[in-house]
Every structure is written in structure tokens, then in C-alpha cells.
Write the C-alpha cells for this entry.
Amino acid sequence: MNLFPTLDDMPENLSGKIVLMRVDFNLPMRDGFVSDKTRIRAALPSIQFLQKRGAKIGLLSHFGKPKGQAVEELSLRHVISAVQDILDCEVKFASDAIGAETAKQLSGLAAAEVLLLENTRFHPGEENGDPEFAEVLAKPADFYVNDAFSAAHRAHASTSVIAQFLPSFAGRSLEKELSNLQTYLETPAGPLMAVVGGAKISTKITLLESLLEKTDILVIGGAMANSFLLAKGLDIGKSLAQPEKINLAKRIMEKAAEKNCELILPSDVVVATEFAAHATSRVRPIDAIRSDEMVLDAGPDTVDQIAAAMERSRTLVWNGPLGAFEVPPFHTSTVEAAQFAGKCARAGKLIGVAGGGDTVAALNMAQIAEDFTYISTGGGAFLEWLEGRVLPGVAALASQTTEN
Ligand code: ADP
Ligand code: MG
């Protein structure tokens, strides 16, 4: 049962009604074109639902970080043609998210027509979560739908505050994300294994602490693991690390022992003297790293350990690559571990869940994304959910009064 209203709770007939739907069209661009349309596809079921019910549809989104002012390169105009491609219909454009002209364009829409509104972050009130701005944004509309799970961890005007001013509903994609998280991770089938990698321990510390409460096996990889190696008194040469976080690393190791959580740190690593594609690389045990070397990936013994742990686990949650995967050959451990997880998931032995911008890119590189049970579209939102934090975008939908 949902704690918030969904599209199924909307009136049967929405003809003549204006529905503002928050989507995440913060799309990756290359040479002026949208390079990945996944996020547009994610919004499609909700848009089609509203079209079937005859609504006038206004789409709200942020795009990049314009910091409260209009920035031409960050205009959502640049994504219109990609949105039209996926929606397979004409998409109109309003050159401001608010104002009389935009209100006129919204009310002038025919049933099922779609109007994309300009970048909400062109106004400082968006990121400040300014209630006055949210009210102005809401003014022309009859209903609000939030379908942007990946922005739900932000308490911004268009992701959360607006729900105070309109009857508000969760879109299909937001609903699906939350139900998957609940199904697989709220009371996960054990043993539960987590893989946490990435660049910095400081951005993942809350995650590690919260995972220690529920995981049976915790793998720490990526540059983050270097701070743990330092904490164990090992020499890590020129590796990326956060020496000021050694105490945090020590605390995590102690807590893991207390909680009976099996901690897997790299036992061997791949090093190079320069961080460049196809740089000469070597495998070293962790106690033999030279002072002019840097750790850029986990080694083959470590991958074997991770694979063996996957075989002993029933649920896997993964965030953060095990190495500098963007630069070959330092993608190797991430790709091999991901392929093994994909194989276990395909065979029905493992429930594989993953999220995070770079993690998803790495799983796509390993070509096993479809083998995973569920891959979240949210980076920050996925992390914050895992950390046990309340997502403001979801809380805003849940806290509506019944008069709405
Ligand atoms: P996600 O986006 O999935 O949450 P992060 O942003 O936390 O993941 O981490 C991904 C980044 O960590 C990648 O850019 C990757 O190159 C970097 N990284 C991982 N291991 C290393 C390493 N050993 N040295 C340098 N960078 C690393
Ligand atoms: Mg990242």
C-alpha cells in the first residue's frame, strides 16, 4: 500500500485541467545533442496516462546548474527535439517556468497537448525552496505530479514545496522506484551484501554507517578503499585518498567487527605511475605499493573474493565503481565483478540492485545492466534512500491534507 496518492487516484476525466508534472530532463548532452534519452523514456508512461485522460500537460524540470539566472546553454529548448522523438508528438515550449505568458500557453493547450516549461533553476526560488516561488509556479495549474525520483532528495520548489499548493500525485516512474526499493531493500532477503566504491570516503560515510546496520558482507572498493589501507598503516604511494578521514575509516572497521559484518577490503590492487589510458599497470599485493605508484583498480584476488561473497549472498546492493573505470584498463575489476553479479542474478541466485550515476555507466559498460534485478535512475536520491533519509519530494506527497 502506498503512503501517497498516485496517478490512479486522479480524477477519471482531466479534460480542460492543467497538470504540471515534474520530470528529470537534466539530460546528458554531447555536441549539442541529447546523448542518452533514458530519463525521457522514464517519464513516458505518466505522460501517456495524462494524455489518455485528456489533460493539458506542463512539464517542469531543471537542467544543469544555472544558479538562479537564465543561461542560454542550459535552456531546455535544447532538449525539445529529443523529447518529441520519444513522446512521438509535438512538444510546445514556454520560455519561462512562471508568468502570465506561460499561464496563457498552458490554458491554451488542447487536450493531451504537452508544453515544456523553461529550466526551473533560472529562478533562485527553485533551489531555495522558496514557498512564494512555488505558489507562483503552481498558480496556473489544477494538479501536480512528481515523476522525478532522481530529484526527490532535493527540497526545491518544483520537487517538493509546490505540493503544498496543489493536489499532488506520484507519477509512475517515481512510484516504481520506491516500490522496487521497498520490495528488494526494505526487508531484503539475506544474506545481504553491499558493494560501495567510488572516489571519496567523505561522500559515502553515512551510507557505510547505515549499511553496517543491515549488511552481512560489506565490500569497500575504489579510491575510497585507499583511506582504509592508510588506516591499516599501509603505504599507498601517490594514490587518491583522504588522509584526514583515517579515523572515520577506523571507526567503520571497528563497527563492522562489532556488528559481525564481514568487511572485504582490497587484498591486491592494480597500480600505475601515471593516470592515463593504457598506462603500464601492475598488480601488487597491498603491502608492496611503491611510493611513485597509485592504486587505480582492485586486483584479481580481490575480484575472486568479491565473486565468492556474491555466491554466498542472496541480495546485492551496489553503489560506486571499484576502480577508475572510465580509463582502461582500470575498468577491469568493476566489469568482472559486475559480470559475475549479472551471471548470478540471471541464474536467479542473486537479487541484484544498483544505483549511482557512475555505477550505472559502469554496469552498462559491462553489458549486464539488464541482468540486474533493478537499477535505480537516481544517483543522490538512491544514496539518500539507502542512508535511511526522508526524501523531501516523497514526503511532500505523503503529507498532503485530505481536502486536497
Ligand atoms: P556513483 O556516481 O556511482 O555514486 P562515485 O561518483 O562515488 O560513484 O564514484 C565514481 C568515481 O570514482 C569515478 O569517477 C571513478 O573514476 C572514481 N574512482 C574509483 N576508484 C578510483 C581510484 N582508485 N582512483 C581514482 N578514482 C577512482
Ligand atoms: Mg558520481
User: Anything to note?
Assistant: The pocket of adenosine-5'-diphosphate (ligand 1) is lined by residues 197-199, 222-223, 240, 295-296, 319-321, 323-326, 356-359, 379 (CB under 6 Å). The longest helix spans residues 38-52. The longest strand covers residues 18-22.
